[in-house]
Specification:
Layout (H helix, E strand, L loop, with lengths): L5 E10 L2 E11 L4 E6 L5 H8 L7 E6 L2 E2 L5 H6 L2 E5 L10 H5 L6 E2 L2 E2 L1 H14 L15 H14 L4 E5 L7 H16 L3 E5 L3 H7 L2 E6 L2 E7 L5 H9 L17 E9 L6 E6 L3 E6 L5 H8 L7 E6 L2 E2 L5 H6 L2 E4 L3 H4 L7 H6 L3 H4 L7 H14 L16 H14 L4 E5 L7 H16 L3 E5 L3 H7 L2 E6 L2 E7 L5 H8 L3 H5 L8
Parallel strand pairs: 3-10, 3-11, 6-9, 9-10, 15-20, 15-21, 18-19, 19-20
Antiparallel strand pairs: 1-2, 1-4, 4-5, 7-8, 11-12, 13-14, 13-16, 16-17, 21-22
The structure holds adenosine-5'-triphosphate and magnesium ion (MG).
Magnesium ion (MG) binds next to helix 1.
């Protein structure tokens, strides 16, 4: 038998207070998609960073086609054909597609750059995986999905034999995900070996060949996808059976806490909605239908043109998130890393910031009280950290998101606007977050939940607004709502209807 393309052998790696990896052995074969799943903080990204040369292992070795790799660094890793595709992209927005692809390994003609040759090769590479983008387009003019395709093309330009995808689909539309999967399948045919990390478990069955489950830095199991099931994977990840992911107890509806009245702005028009005490209101729609834009404008991050934001019936002054927060609104943004956290500060400070005056009346700082308050959410959300004093910069991606959530839960707001609350969150923690939401509304809060995960919207919402083309295309009660009804509205054309035109009958 020939040696696998790549092998991690008995790898261990520690950070202060955390054993991130413990005796992990995993291999990758040419032409396979090896999925890695596990809770937030399980060690998935750390394992991949050993491969990219960003970190060095404390113990164990890395073998490339059977030969131990004595030393690794980002440069060596690149030379031996390893490429990483992260959710956050690493390309240069102001450069063209071709310039990005050849950045760092430009083709020269004498002392000059050979632009024409680089463009010609870029074109051929793009064609080889079926991407229709001009090599001269500036990167910033491409969608996130297309930028990701360019990252992949860049990897191919360097003849990558191993490609790592770390949560690549979290901001893609379903059509874009289909496109990515088509490319991954083409790469598999070319014999490229791929590691694929994702919390969207349904994806595993679509593109995976084998799946490795990790928990607390250890490898729990590696199985052929054909020989496992969703239930077994979920149980392996969480370390327990999860019977009901969604918790909803009927709760009494009270006053209207939050409302938008004919809100119009950049991409959205005439949006009216209400959130009452005791209810979870879902906002469904396609990626790009204007849901996040509405939420950002309502919370005062972005401007809007006309209409009103009403808190308990009173208009909220525009354009000021501090005012919104003081009025009792909490907002969990889609891009948590950039907008929700001070990365250079510890978990405790990031969390208590929204509750400082309540925890420390008369301005006297009570560290112990703060710590206890934060610890409750660290436990409830299973935030994986040795201490609440850890800097958020060093937390795993999903753990960072949980910290932002903890911050708002602690704020004692009455209205919570959650934009994709469980994106990047592991399955076990998802179910904890749902029961926390349920608890919040039982205590009288109202929740407006934007989500692209249909099962989540259907499982948690009392009512659902569906947006399409920047407008509310329709409203569904819990009883009326189902997969089909939501999708039909999401693909409808409310604009044509609003302007009195005839809806497209096709
Ligand atoms: N540079 C670092 N310094 C300190 N601790 C770190 C560092 N990098 C990772 N860790 C810790 O190592 C553990 C594993 O983190 P890792 O990012 O590998 O998790 P993950 O499985 O990718 O999680 P997620 O699903 O949330 O992305 C976590 O406890 C994390 O806080
Ligand atoms: Mg990670």
């Amino acid at each position: 038998m020939t040696a696998p393309l790549l092998e991690f052998r008995h790898i261990s790696k520690s950070f202060p207070g955390v054993k991130a990896l413990e005796d992990v052995s995993v291999d990758l074969r040419a032409g396979e998609v090896h999925v890695i799943v596990g809770e937030n903080g399980a060690g998935k990204s750390t394992l991949m960073k050993l491969l990219s040369g960003a970190y060095a292992a404390d113990e164990g070795e890395l073998l490339l086609e059977g030969t131990p790799l004595r030393k690794n660094s980002p440069k060596i890793s690149e030379q031996i054909g390893i490429a990483m595709i992260y959710q956050e992209l690493t390309l240069v927005p102001e450069l063209s597609v071709a310039d990005n692809i050849f950045l760092g390994h430009e083709i020269h003609k004498g002392p000059l750059l050979n632009r024409r040759e680089m463009e010609r090769r870029t074109e051929a590479l793009l064609a080889s995986i079926g991407i229709a983008v001009s090599p001269r387009t500036l990167l910033r003019n491409l969608s996130i999905a297309n930028q990701q395709m360019i990252e992949i093309t860049k990897a191919l330009s360097k003849n990558a034999k191993i490609i790592v995808f770390d949560e690549p689909t979290s901001s893609l539309t379903s059509a874009e995900i289909a496109e990515l999967f088509r490319i991954i399948a083409a790469l598999r045919e070319k014999g490229v070996g791929m590691f694929y990390i994702s919390h969207r478990l349904e994806e595993i069955f679509e593109i995976g060949d084998r799946v490795t489950i990790m928990r607390d830095g250890k490898r729990i199991s590696t199985t052929a996808i054909a020989q496992t099931s969703m239930d077994r994977i979920v149980e392996g990840i969480a370390g327990r059976r999860i019977e009901n992911v969604y918790t909803r107890t009927p709760s009494e509806r009270g006053e209207t806490l939050f409302a938008l009245r004919n809100l119009s702005g950049g991409v959205f028009k005439n949006v009216s909605l209400q959130v009452r005490s005791g209810e979870i209101v879902g906002v469904a729609g396609l990626v790009g239908s204007g849901r996040s834009e509405v939420a950002r404008a309502a919370f005062g991050i972005d401007a809007y043109k006309s209409g009103d934001v009403l808190v308990r019936g009173k208009p909220l002054p525009r354009g000021n998130p501090q005012t919104a927060s003081r009025a009792g609104i909490a907002f969990l943004p889609e891009d948590r890393k950039r907008e929700g956290l001070a990365l250079s500060l510890p978990i405790r400070e990031n969390t208590v910031i929204s509750a400082l005056s309540r925890l420390n009346p008369r301005g006297i700082i009570r560290r112990r009280k703060e710590r206890a308050a934060v610890q409750k959410y660290v436990d409830d959300l299973e935030i994986s950290t040795p201490t609440v004093e850890k800097l958020t910069n060093f937390l795993s991606g999903g753990t960072q998101q949980k910290v932002v959530l903890a911050k708002w839960l602690l704020s004692q707001a009455h209205t919570f606007i959650f934009d994709e609350p469980t994106r990047g969150i592991d399955i076990g923690s998802k179910s904890n977050i749902y029961s926390l939401m349920d608890e919040l509304v039982r205590q009288g809060a109202g929740i407006l939940m934007i989500s692209s995960e249909l099962p989540e919207v259907l499982g948690m919402s009392d009512r659902i607004y569906v947006m399409a083309q920047g407008r509310i295309a329709g409203e569904l009660s819990r009883e009326e709502a189902n997969h089909y009804a939501v999708i039909q509205l999401a693909f409808s054309r409310p604009e044509a209807a609003a302007e009195g035109g005839t809806p497209d009958e096709r």
